[in-house]
Amino acid sequence: MLRIGNITEQRELYGSSPPSVFAGRAGYPFINIGPSTPLTVGDTSLYDMPEKWIDLGLEDIISFRMSMVTGIKRVRIDNLKDPFIDRIHELAISIKPVDVEIKLAKPPKPFLKLYEHEPPQGPRSVLESFKITSNPRVLRVVDRVYNDPNIKARDAIIMLYFNGIPISSIQRMLSVGALGRFVDRKIVPTRWSITAVDYTVSNKLIEEIREYPVMSGYRMFVRKHYDNLFIAILGEGKWSFEWMEAWYPGSTWNPGSDNVIIEGDYEGFHGRRSYPSIGGCYYACRLAVAEYLVRERRQCNAIVLREIYPGFNIPIGVWFVRENVRKMFREQPVIITNKFSEIIEIFDQYSRIGFRKWLMNSRLLRRIVFNESLTRFLEKYKE
Known about the structure:
383 residues; Nre_C; DNA damage; DNA repair protein
């Protein structure tokens, strides 16, 4: 949590919500939920759309996130008949900013809350009243799933995604309890809804990917961004996926150690049965990988590695992983080759850790190297 200055002392606020809603998880099934808005009127959509943040400076993102004030109210997750939740739904399903009036019990506390999963959250206070003062704009497909009493949340998420609704908008709708069969709808804490949507959409895409031809050869992608290095290696084989992170001393999750901390998780052709220990960034990355393979209509072994260097020491949410990997796959690979040895030859030009250390920690890299060695041995044996 960071203390910030220049926060309004007002209790009555007026602004255009991007739209944005935050749902906490403390005290579950009784949680805090409420609308967020900057004290600005107009097009504020950028304030809560991570899909558009990748080319912005981190200081800019933090600046407009801390300018958004949230009014929170304690509710039970299944109490969707509360008129307050009706207004929250009206706000959350809009595809455009919505003008709101918010009255707080006290002026907001000047703190910026930083999370592993969610984007930074600005100052907040207990909500006394909340009014929508402009007409929300609801797309037809959103209206359809919102008012369908029988559509399952999974099916609604997938329908919205394939109709071009941004991932962040779907996550917001799921969080406020606006998706799913009427009898099953519940408010979902924001951090859980983020991972649930990444998981659900990528699962659907992977179902398709498993039916595609196997990619031939190897492709290596590289992206450097804000003291982070992302490397993706895509290679021959049926669908499998691995996400690994290496945190240097002085970075967000390794502030006090003298050693680089490496961790990760993987899945084979049939997926995982347990939640990955590395957290929601696993599914954020998996979604970006799956989107690329669907565009290419190929399946492969997919390994994505992330090196986090000193200086990157503020948690800003899993969107950072999703959008960086998406951006990386929109660029050309640094190499396309039929020989994995050529990947190894150039790997250390980009990685500070080096191929050898990644190989010691990566299950799928070891599998590729073993298969390559076995292939060369068998070819020599045939001679």
